[in-house]
Amino acid sequence: MSRLLLVLSMVGISSTAFAAAAGCRNDVAALDTEFQAAVKRNDVAAVDRLLPDDYILVSATGDVQTKADLVNDARRKKYVYTHQEDSHQTVRIWGNTAVLTALLWAQGMTEGKHFDVKVWFSDTYVCTPRGWRYVFAQVGTHVPAS
Q1: Which of 77, 98, 114, 141 would be 125's cystine partner, CB 3.0–4.6 Å?
Q2: pLDDT digit string (tens) for 94-134?
Q3: Distances (CA, A) of 43 to 14, 21, 48, 49, 73
Q4: How many domains is the chain partitioned into structurally?
């Protein structure tokens, strides 16, 4: 009987842990979707709210952008998107850290030039007492848009 209780308690713990991880994955995915939508709209207030002050983005060429850079890009409307969507979104959780990976397809104009790109990106989130925070991003090389 004690073995049965032990097995049942282990199953309950794993089910609870699995449910919590699934909830965290959903929370991170929703935050990332919210951030992508804010970037598409050049929503300065949302970009400012969703990124911590020490946020860093590293491009495929090694350029580094900060929160201030992204807020300024939104304010200036440096990128005007006609299309922006991500697919193949996957969230992996390790303790209080989550990494979201997706394929982003973006079209639009920047500084008078048309762009149409597909890029893989990885976004890192950390769970803090205030909830999940988007702290780091890395963009891969361009995939030919088709």
Answers
A1: 98
A2: 999 999 999 999 999 999 999 999 999 999 999 998 889 99
A3: 40, 30, 9, 10, 10
A4: 1
Residue type, 30: A
Could you tell me the CA-to-CA distances from 44 to 68, 76, 84, 89, 108 in Å, in that order? 10, 10, 17, 24, 18
Write out the residue range of the structural domain in which residue 118 sits. 2-143
Q: What is the CATH classification number for the domain harbouring 59?
A: 3.10.450.50
**Contact criterion met (CB below 8 Å) for 93 and 21:** yes
User: Does residue 2 register a pLDDT over 90?
Assistant: no
Cα–Cα distance for residue pair 89/91, rounded to 1 Å = 7
Q: Which is nearest to 70 in space by CA: 116, 139, 119, 126?
A: 139
What are the CA-CA distances from residue 139 to residues 63, 95, 112 (Å)? 10, 23, 23
CA distance 95 to 126: 9
Tens-digit pLDDT profile for residues 69-88: 999 999 999 999 999 888 89
